[in-house]
């Protein structure tokens, strides 16, 4: 195990490589929540297969946001079907899947978007990280992948556990479950920046955090900035920062009393 000290604002952060540790038993029951909508079949299949292949046992909650695919659901998975889509970047199905897992008594919740996948040791690493640090919010590094799944780059800047953790890199234990309603409570105008809003809510509550720097999550990107960072031509139709900037602009355009009201609802400023 190796550890780097870090002293961010908003709760203590520990950065720990747990690859050399051996886990004794199975101390946590873990749910993985995946909202899905209209992702390509092979993407959703890869997502599902990566959860099934985890070295630590976990239960997969797949939440259909209006477009169910029962033909792809493993027998062991829990399939929740919402009758219509919510157009909020998966926030509503993410919240509903989380609440079901909490109601069933799971000790921990991880999130995996349907276009991404886990490396086989992600859940085990998160359980180890919590065991070593006691952190309520754990996370891991990620690789950035092209749409065909090939490696574009290893993310060494964005998903840094100080200013941002991508949704698919998050792992919560019971002490952090009070943050779960933020998925459903955040305004729809902020949904394109949902991971930022949720992570800021974690920080605002000063929950202890721990980060495993190894890249244990694969993030399939459509963002122009990732291709530019890798020195590759930007594909046609790639996303720009404009979508996220519109979230920020909407927030900045609110009257102070409106921002204060949202701060109270979300438990802290979302940006």
Question: How is this structure best described in words?
Answer:
The chain is of the alpha/beta class and 271 residues long. It has one domain: Spore Coat Polysaccharide Biosynthesis Protein SpsA, Chain A (Alpha-Beta Complex). Helices cover 30% and strands 23% of the residues. The protein has helices spanning 41-52, 91-103, 122-133, 182-185, 194-204, 224-229, 242-252, 256-266; strands spanning 2-4, 13-17, 30-36, 59-65, 78-82, 108-111, 117-118, 137-145, 151-154, 170-173, 209-220. Helix 1 (41-52) links the parallel strand 3 and strand 4 (59-65).
Task: Write a brief structural summary.
With 271 residues, the protein is α/β, with parallel strands linked by helices.
**Beginning-to-end CA distance, first to last residue:** 34 Å
Number of contiguous helices? 8
Overall shape:
globular
By CATH, the architecture is named: Alpha-Beta Complex
What percent strand? Answer: 15-25%
Comma- or semicolon-separated keywords:
271 residues; alpha/beta; Spore Coat Polysaccharide Biosynthesis Protein SpsA, Chain A; 11-stranded mixed beta sheet
List the helices and strands and how they pair.
Elements: E1 2-4, E2 13-17, E3 30-36, H1 41-52, E4 59-65, E5 78-82, H2 91-103, E6 108-111, E7 117-118, H3 122-133, E8 137-145, E9 151-154, E10 170-173, H4 182-185, H5 194-204, E11 209-220, H6 224-229, H7 242-252, H8 256-266
Parallel strand pairs: 2-11, 3-4, 3-6, 4-5, 8-11
Antiparallel strand pairs: 1-2, 6-10, 7-11, 8-9, 8-10
